Amino acid sequence: MKLTIQNKTEYLNEYYFQTLCLLYFPGEKFQEGYESPAEASFLLEHRGNGFYCEARLSLGDRSETGSFDTNGYVPMVEMTDSDFAALALGKAYLQAGEALMGFPLPWGYLLGLRPVKRAKYYLDRGYSGEVVEKLFTEDYGVLPTKARLAVTTALTENQMLKDVGEFDCGLYLSIPFCPTKCDYCSFISCATPRLFSLIPSYLERLKRDFVNTCNVIRELGLRLRSVYIGGGTPSILTEEQLTDLLGCMNGHLPKEHLLEFSFEAGRPDTITEGKLHILKEHGVDRISVNPQTTNDEVLRGIGRKHSVADFFEVAKKALSLGFDTVNADLIAGLPGDTKESFEKSLSDVMALGFENITVHTLSVKKSASLRFREGEVYDPAGVLARECVEYACNTLSDAGWLPYYLYRQKNIVGNAENVGYAKPGTENLYNVLMMEEYSTVFACGAGAITKLVSPARDEICRIAFPKYPYEYLDTDSGIRESEIREFFSHYPRKV
Ligand code: SF4
After folding, report:
1. Which residue's CA lies nearest to atom 8 of ligand 1?
2. Cα–Cα nearest to 266, from 227, 234, 220, 293
3. d(Cα 262, Cα 131) in Å, to the nearest integer?
4. Does residue 189's CB lie within 6 angstroms of at least one atom of ligand 1?
5. What is the dihedral of CA 392, 286, 454, 133, to 10 degrees?
6. How far is ligand 1, taken at its centre, from the CA of residue 323, in Å?
7. What's the gap in Å between 306 CA and the centre of ligand 1?
8. pLDDT computed for residue 162 by the predictor
9. For position 380, what pLDDT does the model report?
């Protein structure tokens, strides 16, 4: 799309303007020669003691304008000049955007994937939940229901993190293989039988990196609180492979402070009773069994190879084995789904007696799928997705479930969000550590990213493994222990 910025300020760069534009025009590109019916033009200038912004947005032959002046505005929280510039720009953009597109953005002009982090930032500085909600709705243009959701989630997280410090850590193991590729998936996961031949050597390398990580955790005197095996679909491993991996883990994990051990079983078509027994025997206490929907037609449409009956059968077995926590993922906004069908999926899963339900919003793999063209499979305004996540939030909250982590994705339909809900006391710490970047999470495997976090120094250092399993196997740089040691050498003491 064509983007014109008059009177650029030192406070907001061009990338900020582009990111803002994507809120109403997801999937757009800004390079020259890219044809699009969408256009945006901004005038942003210092005026008096504040900032004034005029925004003009166009789609084809329709245009709308919005404006905002921060002079006379009394801030609810401490604000910098950049915050005032962003306020003028954001408000003007929302005004023009809503007039042009006919719907408000659920998260207003809040950019970034972690709105709860912002709510937590203000709560941690002593502002009340009411003030933060008001700040979200009045300043950022967030819808009241989303502001409440963000604050409730932040309060739940604060409760969960009250005993977690900078010497606590989590550990993630990546199994990036899936039996087949789901149509909507943007995750890098190997789903062709040819690549499954890599699994044995992949597991050998993974175990080595895992053992080295455990040694470093011990040596640095860190407290391992949470372990998570994710994917892909970790339950694609055979019973022998699973026994071998979990046996190795049990032999090396520093378990003294461990609170939880999670396994992303994921697709029902990969889960057997034998695998569930192996998980249970090796101390896994939280598993995910993910139906995404309990509508067979929708499942077929998105390329999942299991049926709803398969899901119910696995769910029954998982519950009978007595895992502490069983989670189910649902997706709002799937092609072919309807509001009624989503409501039924939620009620089916709630009726099972799971402890956690994670409600994702469809995020499309190619941003182009979200562009404003006639006849797209995906609904660009995301009306269905937004209605479904709203319904899930109300229904689960009314039934006493707590939202405990929340994030957005780049190409998420309808600008909505993904939310993990839990029955009180069953929240998963790993998800919160990852999302809020609150303390270090080590990661091993292809595509995995270790995040070394120091809240005291306000510092995050990322160490990424190669994305694809064959690259991971080809590039043996280990877990880069020297970088980890260097990061922790600044800590004043060991626990
Ligand atoms: S199971 Fe999950 S990771 Fe694997 S292809 Fe489907 S959505 Fe992607």
Report:
1. 185
2. 234
3. 36
4. yes
5. 20
6. 23
7. 13
8. 92
9. 57
Query: Is the beta carbon of 175 within 6 A of some atom in ligand 1?
Result: no
Query: Is any ligand 1 atom within 6 A of the Cβ of residue 363?
Result: no
Q: Does the beta carbon of 365 lie inside 6 Å of ligand 1?
A: no
* 1-102, CATH topology level: Double Stranded RNA Binding Domain (3.30.160)
> Hey, what CATH topology would domain 168-482 get?
pyruvate-formate lyase- activating enzyme (3.80.30)
pLDDT at 476: 80
d(CA 178, CA 318): 20
> pLDDT value at position 365?
64
Model pLDDT, residue 495: 45
Nearest-angstrom CA–CA distance, 69 and 135: 17
Location of each CATH 3.80.30.20 domain in the chain: 168-482
Choose the residue to mutate in 174, 180, 182 for probing ligand 1, maximizing ligand atoms within 8 Å of C-beta. Answer: 182
* pLDDT for residue 461: 94
**CA of residue 223 to ligand 1 center, whole Å:** 31
- 378-409 residue pLDDT tens: 465 788 899 999 999 999 999 999 999 999 98
Q: Where in the chain is the domain with CATH 3.30.160.100?
A: 1-102
User: Which atom belonging to ligand 1 lies closest to the Cα atom of 186?
Assistant: 8
- Residue 45 token pair: 């200038």
Q: Identity (one letter) of the amino acid at 387? A: E
Nearest CA to ligand 1 atom 6: 182
Stretches where the chain sits below pLDDT 70 are: 365-380, 491-495
